[in-house]
Design goal:
alpha+beta, 7-stranded mixed beta sheet, 3 domains, Immunoglobulin-like
């Protein structure tokens, strides 16, 4: 059984970080930023701060007894040519600034990419020096190699939001549950950014209204899709940052850690199926408790609980309405057999006097800008890539520009160029076809106005 109300209660009372701790976290970050801004050395270079990781993605969870929760934020600094000649100096200077503080001097640790502030309770905060360079590239520091690493924090957060929207808001909840499973069972380890990327990449735009209708259904389908993909990869695959092509998270785990993760997800996916498919309420509850422990239980006020059907429609992942004139659909041409990952990266091309760079960094775009998209996938080559652009809104409709036709890319590993013409929230979707079946897909939203 799905036991939807049980999942809601479990998330609220056991898994989610409570609002009081979130408020305290926010206050602590604000205090750290003020301290940095007042420092004589780094203060004049402080530009802003940007939440990242679980805090920014709203997937942070309550720590189990005896453990800590952590939050990361990027401290953006103006680039200094002398410091950039010795990149780890950014880390050294941020560390020195907090060691000079009477409040934080005894709480500081320097890590490879961040300065950690350890609080006496169950929390630590990582401060990551972050620089936006003159060429619009965004970098953080790797002290071990004394080099810069590309990053795109706001782009990753935007990608995460897009995937969560496709899953009707259930992706964040599923990631929290999987992180709780990791911490409660302690049978596998996986960095949160890798877990978020792997789960997010397996959210499908197709069949979203049936696969992600509630938390247990989303959990069942996501775990099954992730397990299927892991079983196709008997050795550790490269995990690319979906917001920063060319940057990977491969350094964050090794072959042994990956293989154990693969084994455990295979086991837990089957347990989730068993609990979901069990028709008897008591037996199903016992099966869910086998996964999540005794804190997974009936809501306090429940007596007895009936699983009520939804009375309101699920919010659509794109503006609702009929198909566009002449719109084509990939599943009319190929069967769906999604088992690999695909990610669309999109960039606004340079134009004098206007912002350019990754679309997910820029938010709403101006009209008459040129965009370039590329599909990144782990599907073994050769394969085909099919694209579809779908526009919405009165302007597009009046101009007969709703589109919706399928177009095969002449070079499947090449780029797709588009222009911003109509006000509204539109999307571009890609499908990777191999062996006459769709084996990977992704959707990228573009808002113009």
């Amino acid at each position: 059984m799905k036991l939807v109300a049980y999942f809601d209660s479990f998330l609220t009372n056991t898994v989610n970080l409570n609002q009081g701790r979130l408020d305290l976290l926010d206050a602590r970050v604000q205090s750290l930023v003020v301290t940095a801004s007042l420092d004589d050395t780094i203060g004049p270079k402080v530009v802003t701060h940007i939440p990242q990781g679980s805090w920014a993605h709203r997937t942070i969870i309550k720590p189990l007894a005896g453990r800590e929760f952590d939050a990361d934020f990027l401290l953006q600094l103006e680039e200094d040519s002398d410091w950039s000649a010795d990149p780890k100096r950014y880390l050294r200077e941020v560390e020195a600034a907090f060691r000079r503080s009477t409040t934080y001097g005894g709480m500081v640790q320097r890590k490879n990419r961040c300065v950690r502030i350890d609080y006496a309770d169950d929390c630590h905060i990582d401060i990551v020096p972050y620089i936006v360079r003159d060429d619009d590239s965004q970098v953080i520091v790797n002290a071990e190699s004394n080099s810069f690493e590309d990053t795109n924090p706001e782009g990753f957060t935007a990608w995460m939001k897009e995937k969560d929207d496709l899953a009707h808001g259930n992706l964040r909840r599923i990631i929290r549950l999987l992180k709780y499973l990791r911490d409660y069972k302690t049978t596998f380890s996986c960095k949160s950014v890798i877990l978020t990327t792997l789960v997010g990449e397996h959210i499908r735009a197709s069949e979203a209204d049936t696969r992600y209708v509630d938390v247990p259904t989303t959990l069942k389908n996501v775990a099954a899709d992730l397990d299927a993909w892991l079983q196709l990869n008997p050795t550790k695959p490269s995990i690319e940052d979906p917001s920063c092509p060319g940057t990977t998270f491969d350094h964050r785990w090794d072959e042994a850690t990956y293989l154990n993760f693969r084994t455990q997800i295979h086991r837990y996916s089957q347990w989730i199926n068993d609990a979901y498919d069990e028709p008897d309420r008591d037996a199903s509850l016992a099966a869910w408790q086998r996964i999540f422990g005794p804190d997974f239980k009936a809501p306090v006020a429940a007596a007895p609980i009936a699983e009520a059907p939804r009375t309101a429609p699920i919010a659509p992942v794109a503006p609702a309405g009929p198909a566009a004139p002449g719109e084509q659909f990939i599943n009319d041409r190929y069967p769906m057999d999604v088992r690999y990952a695909a990610t669309i990266s999109g960039r606004v091309l340079p134009r004098a006097g206007f912002r350019h760079g990754p679309i997910r960094n820029l938010g709403r775009l101006q009209k008459h800008r040129e965009l370039r998209f590329r599909a990144h996938t782990d599907v073994p080559y050769p394969y085909e890539v099919w694209w579809k652009v779908r526009n919405y809104g009165r302007e597009a409709q009046t101009a007969n520009g709703l589109r919706g036709q399928l177009e095969q890319a002449p070079d499947p590993r090449g780029e797709q160029t588009e222009s911003t013409l109509y006000t509204g929230k539109h999307w571009i979707e890609c499908w990777v076809v191999k062996g006459g079946r769709v084996v990977a897909t992704d959707r990228h939203f573009v808002e113009i106005g």
